[in-house]
């Protein structure tokens, strides 16, 4: 457990959460299919982190521990949005999140999906590809692109959503043409 004296007031936990908030939000954003549920996920994660703070043994373990909580809640939100056919499945998102998994060939379907995704992504002009990848690179990357292009962030998020629909359609077509 963390330092009990500092933890009695929750001050240490709040400082850790505040220090790592941007990174946790960015991590959740990698998993979620849109920014619409990000605030809800982070609010729920903060409540779970507060409730389970006794599980945290040392502040150096905070970020991996908190990421696990954020990951579980984010995937729960993804599943609730699974009715939207333009959402990549959990397995593919997990694979994209884990660099080690990218080298693994354990699941043929997942390998085919990844190959199809990369093939389709490479069909986009570089500017569009950069926009699609921006939310996965760093928090605020889409806003930075909007500022550079003298556009509103909202307009780029709408364009990003349309590009994701096209990308998903392309991946689906690639998967249909692949031999089973």
If you had to describe this structure to a student in words, what would you say it looks like?
There is one protein chain. The protein has helices at 4-8, 11-31, 38-51, 62-80, 90-97, 99-103, 108-121, 126-137, 141-148, 153-177. It contains ten helices and no strands. The longest helix has 25 residues, at 153-177. It has two domains: 4-80, Rna Polymerase Sigma Factor, Chain: A (Orthogonal Bundle), CATH 1.10.1740; 90-177, no CATH class. It is mostly helical and 180 residues long. The protein starts with a helix and ends with a helix. α2 (11-31) crosses α4 (62-80), α7 crosses α10 and α9 crosses α10 (153-177).
Layout of SSEs?
Elements (H helix, E strand, L loop, with lengths): L3 H5 L2 H21 L6 H14 L10 H19 L9 H8 L1 H5 L4 H14 L4 H12 L3 H8 L4 H25 L3
Q: How would you concisely characterize the structure shown here?
A:
The protein contains ten helices and no strands. It is mainly alpha-helical and 180 residues long.
Q: Sheet with the most strands?
A: none
Roughly how many Å is the radius of gyration?
19 Å
Q: What is the share of helical residues?
A: over 70%
Poorly predicted ranges (pLDDT <50, ≥5 residues)?
A: 3-9, 99-107
SSE order in H/E notation? HHHHHHHHHH
Cα separation of the termini: 50 Å
- Kindly name the structural category: mainly alpha
Number of DSSP strands? 0
Instruction: Write down the domain tally.
Output: 2
């Amino acid at each position: 457990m963390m330092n009990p004296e500092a933890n009695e007031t929750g001050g240490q936990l709040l400082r850790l959460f505040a220090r790592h908030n941007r990174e946790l939000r960015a991590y959740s954003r990698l998993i979620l299919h849109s920014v619409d549920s990000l605030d809800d996920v982070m609010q729920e994660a903060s409540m779970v982190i507060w409730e389970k703070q006794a599980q945290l043994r040392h502040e150096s373990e905070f970020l991996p521990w908190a990421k696990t909580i954020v990951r579980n809640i984010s995937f729960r939100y993804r599943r609730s949005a699974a009715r939207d056919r333009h959402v990549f499945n959990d397995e593919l998102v997990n694979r994209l999140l884990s660099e080690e998994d990218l080298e693994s060939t354990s699941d043929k379907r997942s390998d085919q999906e990844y190959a199809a995704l990369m093939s389709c992504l490479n069909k986009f002009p570089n500017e569009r590809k950069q926009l699609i990848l921006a939310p996965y690179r760093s928090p605020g990357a889409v806003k930075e692109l909007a500022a550079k292009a003298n556009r509103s962030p909202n307009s780029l998020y709408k364009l990003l959503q349309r590009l994701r629909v096209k990308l998903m359609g392309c991946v689906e077509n690639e998967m249909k043409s692949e031999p089973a």
